[in-house]
Write a structure and sequence with these properties.
The chain is of the alpha/beta class. Helices cover 41% and strands 11% of the residues. The protein has a 9-stranded mixed sheet, sandwiched between helices. A 3-stranded antiparallel sheet has the order 10-12-11. The protein is elongated and about 75 Å long.
Length: 409
């Protein structure tokens, strides 16, 4: 059963969730204790004075909450509250679901089955090509593609799903897109589907915000597919969240010679489903979508079983929630090389060679796929490949495919 909050009630929710040291769990505790967000805001000053040894909660200024609310609407987005009809059902089922999400775009995509495609920022051309084909294939089956708008695999999956339905999850606020060069892609996603965030409108994403984003990427999805990931990749955080949330996990196998496949191959050794084509995913999802194997944990009203997913910046009224070392030691989507997906002006010859070399791995890839991943014309890519071939850094394969030359044994 869904509810519909008034603007005044949503403003109460926004003021409470934006209060310092109030996260999703603390929000729920306060609302349940006092009977509503407005009542919790009114009671908190006296309650906090009487509390002993607790981490301080500093209530968000009402004027600040009103400014954010109005600015979000002015930016063409709106807030959707937990329990409202437009709130994504799979996300509702995760532990500590965000009480409010800001959505820019079309909320009807939340009613369709979704799968997340994630992977390396510095993906190989073969990995980018596979992400595109996987996204297109799943899209033809009616599956919306979810990803985190990062460089590399995320961007490739988003672009390939614009015609069939895309959801982009932001680590920061809607007005602070990261990476900034994906602004045009974000606009396209909002037209084809939706942009989603739980962060304040003007929030610049910080390192610890990326795992929070990753939990929403997996939480919105019936399945998460990892295309390429090193052993320290942030994509493995998304994979862990998927498992904790009771979702299906897939990984694309890769060459044991390519460090970008170490994380995905580890997932497969630990029991993740193999993914080499869209049908591998659909064989698992189709029974859920068609109702042959109902998932009450995803679409029922029962509260989810407790998981161990970490959240930060909240007190839970029981003490601070610290960033786990298993997460804080991993690499997130900090600035790194970006590869455009459309032909651009010819880069300097040396830069072109370095870009192409960075996209090659042990797995052969077609020259056209390589050129697209590098953001070059086929002629530009072939000139770079000629230099690499003269330096004996590539191998040629049938079907106009190339790969990186094996290193010395």
């Amino acid at each position: 059963m869904s509810v519909a909050l008034t603007d005044a009630q949503k403003l109460d929710w926004l003021q409470l969730i934006r209060s310092e040291n109030v996260g999703p769990r603390t929000f729920r505790t306060l609302v349940n204790k006092f009977g509503g967000a407005g009542a919790a805001l009114a009671a908190l000053p006296d309650f906090l004075r009487a509390a002993k040894g607790q981490r301080a909660i500093r209530i968000c200024d009402r004027d600040d909450a009103e400014r954010e609310y109005e600015a979000t609407l002015a930016a063409g987005a709106r807030f959707v509250a937990l329990g409202e009809e437009d709130y994504p059902a799979p996300l509702r089922a995760i532990e500590a679901a965000p009480p409010l999400i800001a959505v820019r775009g079309q909320t009807h995509v939340f009613r369709r089955p979704a799968a997340a495609i994630v992977g390396s920022r510095n993906a190989s051309a073969a990995g980018l090509a596979f992400a595109e084909r996987l996204a297109r294939g799943l899209g033809r089956e009616g599956v919306v593609i979810v990803s985190g708008l990062a460089r590399g695999v995320d961007a490739a999956a988003h672009r390939a799903s614009l015609a069939t339905g895309a959801i982009g999850v932001l680590a920061g606020g809607l007005a602070r897109l990261y990476p900034p060069e994906h602004a045009a892609l974000a606009d396209q996603i909002a037209e084809a589907g939706a942009l989603v965030t739980e962060m304040p409108l003007d929030r610049e994403p910080r390192g610890r915000d990326f795992p929070r984003r990753n939990r929403l990427v997996s939480g919105l999805s019936l399945a998460t597919i990892v295309v390429e990931a090193t052993r320290r990749s942030g994509s493995l955080i998304t994979a862990r969240f998927a498992l904790e949330q009771g979702r299906e996990l897939f990984a694309a196998p890769g060459s044991p010679l390519d460090p970008r496949a170490e994380g995905t191959n580890d997932l497969l050794r630990n029991g993740a489903n193999f993914c080499t084509r869209p049908d591998d995913v659909m064989d698992v999802l189709r029974p859920m979508i068609e109702g042959e194997a109902p998932r009450r944990d995803l679409f029922g009203e029962e509260p989810p079983a407790p998981h161990s997913e970490p959240l930060w910046d909240e007190t839970d009224l029981f003490g601070a929630v610290e960033t786990p070392s298993a997460v804080s030691s991993l690499a997130f989507d900090e600035p790194g090389p970006a590869f455009a997906q459309a032909p651009r002006a010819a880069p300097p010859a040396r830069d072109a060679v370095e870009i192409v070399a960075g996209l090659l791995g042990p797995a052969p890839v077609g020259v056209d796929d390589l050129a697209r991943a590098a953001g070059m014309t086929a002629a530009q890519a072939r000139r770079a490949l000629m230099e690499l071939e003269l330096a004996r850094k590539i191998e040629r394969h049938g079907g106009d495919r190339v790969s990186a030359a094996p290193g010395p044994e």
